[in-house]
Amino acid sequence: MRLIVLVILLVFIALGVVVGALNADLVTYDLAFAHLSLPKGAAVLVALVVGWLLGGLTAWLGVSSRHRRQRRRERKAAGKGETANA
User: Fold this and answer.
1) How many Å apart are CA 41 and CA 16, to the nearest integer?
2) Number of neighbours of residue 41 by Cβ within 10 angstroms
């Protein structure tokens, strides 16, 4: 299984290198406070990484808030159970 994952990872890395090499033209971004000039391949890579990070952060926040609500409900239910037994 690890070998298959490693082979797939190497294929994607090779494809990324090829796409980056074929798109070596510079792209200029004006961010109002800075001007960036990046090769197209690097710009695509940066966009993918930023999207991956924002998606992961969004998923993590959604899961953690759901878990917080669930723990809060469990604590309330446990508190009511303790007072009923006393």
Assistant:
1) 8
2) 19
Q: Which residues contact 26 (CB under 8 A, 6 or more apart)?
A: 37, 38, 39, 40
- Partnered with residue 26 across adjacent β-strands are 39
Q: Which residue has the tokens 């070998």?
A: 3
Phi/psi of residue 15, each to 5°? -65, -40
How many angstroms separate the CA atoms of 37 and 18, rounded? 20
pTM for the model stands at 0.56
Burial classification of residue 44, based on how many CB atoms lie within 10 Å of its CB (0-12 exposed, 13-18 middle, 19 or more buried): middle
Tens digits of pLDDT across the chain (86 residues): 889 989 998 998 888 888 888 888 999 989 889 898 988 888 888 888 899 899 989 888 887 777 888 888 888 888 876 655 55
